[in-house]
Design a protein that fits this description.
By secondary structure, this protein is of the alpha+beta class. The protein has nine helices and five strands; from the N terminus they run βββαββαααααααα.
Length: 204
């Protein structure tokens, strides 16, 4: 319903940012990673948002980037992961780190977040990897025929899977990852690929 809000940052507190747009202050629940990117009070800020509707409340969640928003949506789509846990994970890990952890099956990395125990972390990894396999037609995203040359590298394969976790199609992810040195660490491949995707969108 509300794709994004842009206006004057009027208030912040841990986990909250208020942006005034046209005389209306939108209270956005945020991750600590997003809060670290916010400007000074009184300056212009923009957050990408998703509205969570409950019987007793309407909560607006805001994020500094669409990638973080996409990661939040993927996380809260996992059974047992509510918005509070999703924010806790994205306060401790960047979207790139979350996606890389899922792609490499590193559930332990997710337990760094408050409220995420071993079993829940394992469930997150399993459910999100299953979604990636579904996107790839029952195969690992990196193993899809469209992945081409990147399928020869475990780092590149993991980067393609990580991009798929963030909502990109396996074919698009593979095409971008193939532009970079597959010997690079997964998180670096992911950062470069996301930067290239973002630059392509601006250029288009």
């Amino acid at each position: 319903m509300i794709d994004s809000v842009r206006g004057t940052l009027t208030h912040t507190e841990p986990g909250v940012a208020v942006i005034e747009c046209g005389g209306v202050g939108f209270k956005c629940l945020t991750s600590m990673n997003t809060q670290r990117t916010l400007p000074q009070i009184g300056e212009e800020a923009k957050l990408f948002t998703v509205l969570n509707v409950r019987e007793d409340a309407l909560d607006l969640f805001g994020f500094a980037t669409r990638t973080e928003l996409s990661c939040f949506k993927m996380l809260t789509g996992v059974s047992g992961v509510g918005p509070k846990v999703g924010l806790a994970i994205l306060s401790e890990l960047t979207p790139e780190q979350v996606a890389a952890a899922v792609a490499m099956g590193d559930s332990k990395a997710l337990t760094r977040a408050s409220g995420v125990g071993r079993k829940l972390a394992q469930r997150i990894c399993l459910e999100l990897k299953d979604r990636v396999r579904d996107l790839g037609g029952g195969k690992s995203a990196a193993a899809a025929p469209s992945a081409g040359a990147v399928s020869a590298s475990s780092h590149a394969e993991a980067a393609v899977e990580a991009l798929s976790v963030l909502g990109y199609s396996p074919s698009d992810a593979a095409a971008v990852v193939a532009k970079f040195d597959s010997a690079l660490p997964v998180e670096e491949l992911l950062r470069l690929s996301l930067r290239a995707i973002d630059a392509g969108k601006r250029g288009g």
